[in-house]
Amino acid sequence: MSRKSADYWAERLSRQNQRIGDKTVEELETRLRQYYRAASADITREAESLYNKLLAEAGDQPVKPNDLYRMDRLYHLQSKIHQRLQELGGREVETVGGGLRQVAELVDKNTVSGLPDAAKNSPWAVLPREQAEAIANRIWCADGKNWSDRIWKSKTALQQRLEKGMVDIIVRGEKPDELSKTLMADMGVGYREASRIARTETAHVRAEAEAAALEREGYERYRFVNATDGRTCGECGRLNGKTFLLSERRAGVNYPPIHPNCRGRIVAVVTFADGTEVQPVIRGPGHWKMDQEQPAKRTINVNVRLDEPAQYEGDIADRLRRRAKETVAGGPVQRFETLPSSIRTPFLDGLKKATPDAEQALSSILPQVEIHLVEGKNSQYIRGVDVVELNSQAEPSTLAHELFHRLDDKNGISKARELQKAMDRDFRQLKVESGGNLKGYLMEQYPAMWRQSQSGRWKMKPEYRGISDMLSGLTEGQFNGGYSHTAAYWNRSKYSLPREAWAQFGRMLYENNPEALSALQTLFPRFYERATMALKELV
């Protein structure tokens, strides 16, 4: 094996294992987000019901603290919250536990099958379930707790946070809407804690499964590798490129994860028969430099010819998935970074002007999305095959619109029905205020929203197209402010309206026009609040 090929397979194997972990985390976060969103709705509904009763009983008088404790009302509500959080914790433990076992099995198999030499001890072996569970349940932190202990501890803290926020709001006599906002914000904190646990524990299991497989195959050393972007912490930066014995690895010290949400990974150190170690390719500033280390026992036969790297299982699966996407899309698909600069540059320039949450959400999925460029047809996100079909002449905000469709598809935002309910309430209020004449009302209240076409027809300006499309959906195509879908489109699915509303919300955040966002928030206050909270959960 050439030294260049040895560096190639070791680096690629490490990145394949990292992708296994990243994909599992993405799936876990999608399911956890759905669990927390449902629990948040249940808990908020129970708390609002009690508060509304207290307000009704108090009449014109403020609610007193004694009213909350009378007839064990607070106790009964606490019991309901506790029961719902226990259900949430149970589902979380089951989901995360299954994900961690899966990571251990897949990483073990990928590591063994990806080793370049023929003399493997257990080629294509499947890690026994009990060993996968042992890796997943291994205690690795100084506090002596494993991942399930942390999940239940977080539920206890979440209940205390919810109860304190609820009591404070009621005692202060705030509006019911404030109670809802506070409870949903606290549940958002709970979700982010759950995400942190899932992400950190997945990183630990991925690294441990990889180390166990390498040790079983006779390798003794590893190199610590960390992301070299602006978010790398100083501790991981100091470890980057250094080599250690697998037998002396210590998670949190010289082995990932070093800290919560750690992005560190390991690369197997290959030692040649002459005692020298493979030198990694230097790819630019910020990457590691090798120190001379003592040769490890595991040696590679230099006569084995692998200058043309073998095709491993992960590469074949990726190729098949890409072929399927190209078949459905009707042409080649490509990553964002390979798009023509005439598309990439304007989008990235616009991204710098987007709201912080929108910028973070869009930036996080850009490396994952695959795009098929088309001519003479509208852009769309093709669910099922996960491809954005983008008109090459479309403006940058159209890509942001389609990427928000992808965020919805991957995270089940529209299917949670919260956006639809919020829009329905907002629209009922809008119909009352407008007296049924929506267009006349909007032209009177928001004259700057409109422009007159050459034919004399009044249409909303492009920056307000999201509002026009939402009203089109709420009236099943009857309202046309210049940007709309047909009635047939809106009736195609019960999720058509929340899907489009969410994507238009994303487009408007990307464009970040203050007047347009203010109008959206004024006309659809409940929708704006729910959509904003859903976006914050993602980032």
For the biggest β-sheet, the strand order reads: 6-7-9-8
What is the number of strand segments? Answer: 11
- Largest sheet data: 4 strands, mixed
In percent, how helical is the residue content?
Answer: 55-70%
How many helices? The count is: 18
Task: Flag low-confidence runs.
Answer: 118-124, 279-317
Spatial separation of the terminal alpha carbons: 44 Å
Structural class: alpha+beta
Folded structure, characterized:
The chain has helices spanning 3-58, 65-69, 73-114, 129-136, 147-172, 176-216, 234-239, 313-329, 341-351, 356-365, 396-411, 418-434, 438-445, 465-474, 487-490, 496-511, 514-523, 525-538, and strands at residues 221-225, 243-245, 265-268, 271-272, 299-300, 334-335, 370-374, 380-382, 387-391, 450-452, 458-460. It is of the alpha+beta class. A four-stranded mixed beta sheet has the order 6-7-9-8, with helices on both faces. The protein has a three-stranded antiparallel beta sheet with strand order 2-1-3. Strand 10 (450-452) and strand 11 form a beta hairpin. Helix 1 (3-58) packs antiparallel against helix 3. The longest helix is centred in the N-terminal third of the chain and has 56 residues, at 3-58. The model is unreliable at 118-124 and 279-317 (pLDDT under 50).
